[in-house]
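Dear colleague,

Thank you for sharing your sequence with our group. We've completed the structure prediction you requested, and as agreed, I am returning the results in plain text so they can be pasted directly into your records. Please verify that the sequence below matches your submission; if there's any discrepancy, let me know and we will rerun it promptly.
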Amino acid sequence: MTAVCRRCVSVATVVAAMTMSVGALAESGRAAYYGGGRTASGEHSGPNQLTAAHRTLPFGTKVLVTNIRNGRSVIVRINDRGPYGRGRIIDLSIAAARELGMLRSGTASVTLARQ
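Please find the predicted structure tokens below.
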């Protein structure tokens, strides 16, 4: 791992620690992405929107998602239910996955902080 990657991981760790200390929702786990379509909230989600699916958060909740490996972050709006795949905590739109740099790998280790 290069010095740049270590610094990015350190920044992601600090961000996660800060969000936990202020009492915001803080979760960590695996994320994947999906192409969009009709959502559980009733809206039609396109691949260019910064949206996500979460099992329990209310629709409309904004969440800061941080890729632990590269430190990149994006704020998404919850508009769907899921993920239903084992071991995942959030499903992201393609646009959000692109912002996090996880399109090639398909999944990433992330932290979530409610905004």
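Summary note from our side: The CA atoms of residues 9 and 69 lie 6 Å apart.

Kind regards,
the structure core
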